[in-house]
Automatic annotation (TrEMBL), chains A, B:
<protein>
    <submittedName>
        <fullName>Glutathione S-transferase</fullName>
    </submittedName>
</protein>
<comment type="subunit">
    <text>Homodimer.</text>
</comment>
<keyword id="KW-0808">Transferase</keyword>
<dbReference type="InterPro" id="IPR036282">
    <property type="entry name" value="Glutathione-S-Trfase_C_sf"/>
</dbReference>
<dbReference type="InterPro" id="IPR040079">
    <property type="entry name" value="Glutathione_S-Trfase"/>
</dbReference>
<dbReference type="InterPro" id="IPR004046">
    <property type="entry name" value="GST_C"/>
</dbReference>
<dbReference type="Pfam" id="PF14497">
    <property type="entry name" value="GST_C_3"/>
</dbReference>
<dbReference type="Pfam" id="PF13417">
    <property type="entry name" value="GST_N_3"/>
</dbReference>
<dbReference type="GO" id="GO:0004364">
    <property type="term" value="F:glutathione transferase activity"/>
</dbReference>
<dbReference type="InterPro" id="IPR036249">
    <property type="entry name" value="Thioredoxin-like_sf"/>
</dbReference>
<feature type="domain" description="GST N-terminal">
    <location>
        <begin position="1"/>
        <end position="78"/>
    </location>
</feature>
<dbReference type="GO" id="GO:0006749">
    <property type="term" value="P:glutathione metabolic process"/>
</dbReference>
<feature type="domain" description="GST C-terminal">
    <location>
        <begin position="83"/>
        <end position="212"/>
    </location>
</feature>
<dbReference type="InterPro" id="IPR004045">
    <property type="entry name" value="Glutathione_S-Trfase_N"/>
</dbReference>
<dbReference type="InterPro" id="IPR010987">
    <property type="entry name" value="Glutathione-S-Trfase_C-like"/>
</dbReference>
Length: 221, 221
């Protein structure tokens, strides 16, 4: 049986879960409290991070490398288009969300407010949260600007870039950190992704002691 | 004329410069003091980062997306092999160096000691440097372990993973932060990369006020 070692509120795990779901690859989800770094987990992935995907006899780590591998070996539906310039744009935006957005928003809101509580690693840093709130506005505006010109974030086709972005936004939405009123184009885009069957597993996530906000799993939010 | 907006001691710019050099794509190098974030630079790349590559009428950012694009459009020499599992391994290691190694070593040694001085942004943090020194040993051992089983980091062929790793090590080597005595396999591997024509431009880099250490450009180090 294929297995994904993951943590429910990790955006990188969520990107992989959405990719697996779209491609209808069945996996057993194994929750990994990665911050406790057990010896067995470190044997599976010396980087000490989630996600780790056991696929047949292979053990894969690093979310972007996993998603590219899945897209190359299970072509339908195609999440990275064939044209080199379109592929570039998908990868640029994946890096935008997994690096820049993660650093400026996810780390400052989701990790400060929710993950510090879950991992019992201190109290939220008010300054970081204020910075995260301010940067989040800029990112929502950037997404809306992209979506004015395109049906999906990287072009007219749904791609891995949409899943990278939705993975981060869904983690933030779990803690009610998303201002859905700011940009209707972003809300409409998220509603399309949220209604996909591959998203259901994310909407069912529950972290003990930290339930999601009321509209988290609501398709009409 | 193609242009690369870069900073000489950025590992991400160096990875792109090595890729351009291997593929014999001529570019004019334009030094960008990215931390000053001029309005013109932010127009070129809203992420406010280097490298930014102007290739014909296209403006590309994000080093990994740029390198993948270059490898797809200028196939020789191939830096990401065709087999999906080998491609996975190249991408896993690029992420290893650009994310984990960068966070644990480059940021803690190179940025603390050298870039803080260059950007006039404070004094080195002794605790970060001690952590970086300790983690660097672990990473050199991991590289040696890979190189015991393979000719190059990701397999028997030179790939983008070697350039990602060499880009970080060369920045650290500029400031004499690499213990070349720890693992002879790593030194031998670096000597092979260092002697490539694509590496010459990196060895000629000079940052005013912070010259490289004596053996930085020496092929017999």
């Amino acid at each position: 049986m294929n297995r994904l070692f993951h943590f429910p509120l990790s955006p990188f795990c969520r990107k992989v879960r959405l990719t697996l779901g779209e491609k209808r690859i069945e996996v057993e989800l194994v929750e990994e409290r990665y911050w406790e770094q057990g010896a067995e987990f470190l044997r599976r992935n010396p980087a000490g991070k989630v996600p780790v995907l056991r696929l047949g006899d292979r053990v894969l780590s690093e979310s972007q490398a996993i998603c590219e591998y899945l897209d190359e070996t299970v072509p339908e539906p195609q999440l990275i288009p064939r044209d080199p310039m379109k592929r570039y744009e998908v990868r640029r935006l994946c890096a935008w969300f997994d690096d820049k957005f993660h650093h400026e928003v996810t780390a400052k809101l989701h990790y400060e407010r929710l993950m510090k509580k879950v991992t019992k690693s201190g109290y939220p840093d008010g300054k970081a949260i204020r910075e995260g709130v301010a940067r989040f506005k800029y990112h929502l505006d950037y997404m809306a600007w992209l979506l004015e010109q395109r049906r999906w974030l990287a072009g007219d086709q749904m791609t891995l870039a949409d899943f990278a972005a939705a993975a981060h936004l869904s983690c933030l939405d779990y803690g009610a950190d998303v201002d859905w009123h700011r940009q209707s184009a972003v809300k409409d885009w998220y509603a399309k992704i949220k209604s996909r069957p591959s998203f259901r597993s994310l909407l069912a996530d529950q972290v003990p002691g930290s339930p999601p906000h009321a509209d988290y799993a609501n398709l009409d939010f």
